[in-house]
Amino acid sequence: MDNSICLITPPSPFLLDERVFIHLGILKVASVLEREDVKVDFLDLSGVNNYLDVVDNYINSKDSSNTFGITATTPQVPNAVKLCKIIKDRSPAAKVILGGPHVTLMNSASKREKKRGLDKGNRATFDVESLSSIFDIIVCGDGEKAIFEALKIDSGIVDADDRKSPMFLTNEDFSSLPMPARHLVDIDSYKYFIEDARAVSLIAQLGCPFHCAFCSGRNSPFLRKIRTRSIDSIIEEIDHLYKNHGFKGYMFYDDELNVNKGMVDLMNKLSDYQKENNVEFRLRGFVKAELFTDEQAAAMYRAGFRWLLTGFESGDEKILKNIKKIATIEDNTRCVEIAKRNNLKVKALMSIGHAGESRETVENTKNWLLEVKPDDFDCTIITTYPGSPYFDNAEKQDDIYVYSDPSNGDKLYQSSINYLEDLDYYKGDPEGGYVSYVWTDHLSAQGLVDARGALEKEVREKLNIPFNPSRPGIKYEHSMGMGNINIPDHILRRSS
């Protein structure tokens, strides 16, 4: 097994500000590697405009690793592919491993394609085969154990996205693993605040058991199976971040905090910790609307929560049924009311472009927002990500893919996306610039773009909610280093 590796976080060009949340998944992998005495170089290319120059400089240095591990969400894949190609061009003998959400979900979708019959569509299988031809090794699912299998082999797929696999993390594994190796990134270069408290993200649990049609990971155990950390391990991580880095703000980056029946106990423990240490935290996180209660809200406020994020998605009852949301309009309204009653602010996460979407349903979504008056909101045009029923259950018709709602036959049409190259299918500029790759029987792709823009403009104006600001990217200044690595430490950090 190699005793050194260079882990890389590629840029995420769709984000307005890439240095908000640290990528914790790959840092968890880094921490277990360090625990086994594997030397880790970490290239954090988040927000770096000329990121290929960084990698070029790294490879040309005399003390670089010849093994690389790259993580990628779906929108990061084109940049991950570019990184692999420059690595192979500069160092043909290098081993390059790709992991992260995209390959996990594509591989899950590919397995489903093979069960359904490839004649109904094989785009996921084609994607996996294409990535396998570019990268030496593909890691799917939990990477903390799978990385060691990847280091032992020269090529192939390491599939940890299987509940029966010994590489699939249990609750006990999740609680006992070391904390993410945040010392390998420049924490100070990440700027996020909850009210006036400088904040950092953490993960208390994994998985979401619900069946939303637009959501990736519905067929992936990695993202479906709920796995929870012990309360003690969560408190230990917060204690470390507070006492060593001074953080008083924490973003719980879990799918739905209140899916965990022990959430109130966690909130009470957090309240006790703050009393014992004479400190006040400010917290933020996601909740499931139909599960939200006054008891949860009160406990969250006592623990320091001031903001909640909830995927309400739509203000139209038909659309909520089509996307397989359990929550009704009444549930969603009640959730906002509970939050406000307990002095919690709400960010409403909305989306349009679902099967059956029309001008009327978009108008209903706009009117619901104006009625409940969230403190902030986002409205996106959906992307048919791999792992979602919209993607997995779509059938190819000529050069497009069509998803049919199983209950009423409403259609969602999808242009084919080359996930290895395309970068313009996600979010555009906050004031416009969207490109929609989906359309319905009632709204064209451009019609969805126009409808989203009109909704965004009117709701923000009437509720006095400003657009989220963007942050300029980072320019890497190359300098000669006489064969030594001279990349600044906000981009490169190394194991001690």
SSE diagram, text form:
Elements: E1 4-9, H1 24-35, E2 39-44, H2 51-60, E3 67-71, H3 77-90, E4 95-99, H4 101-116, H5 123-134, E5 137-140, H6 143-152, E6 156-159, H7 171-176, E7 193-194, E8 197-202, E9 205-206, H8 221-224, E10 227-228, H9 231-245, E11 249-252, H10 263-276, E12 282-286, H11 294-303, E13 305-313, H12 317-322, H13 329-341, E14 345-352, H14 359-372, E15 376-381, H15 389-392, E16 395-397, E17 400-404, E18 411-415, E19 438-439, H16 445-463, E20 492-494
Parallel strand pairs: 1-2, 1-3, 3-4, 4-5, 5-6, 8-11, 11-12, 12-13, 13-14, 14-15
Antiparallel strand pairs: 2-20, 7-8, 9-10, 16-17, 17-18, 18-19
Assign the CATH topology of the largest domain.
Answer: pyruvate-formate lyase- activating enzyme
Second CATH tier, the architecture of the largest domain: Alpha-Beta Horseshoe
Strand arrangement, largest sheet? 6-5-4-3-1-2-20
For the biggest sheet, the summary is: 7 strands, mixed
Would you state the CATH class of the largest domain? Alpha Beta
- The count of domains is 2
| Overall 3D shape | globular
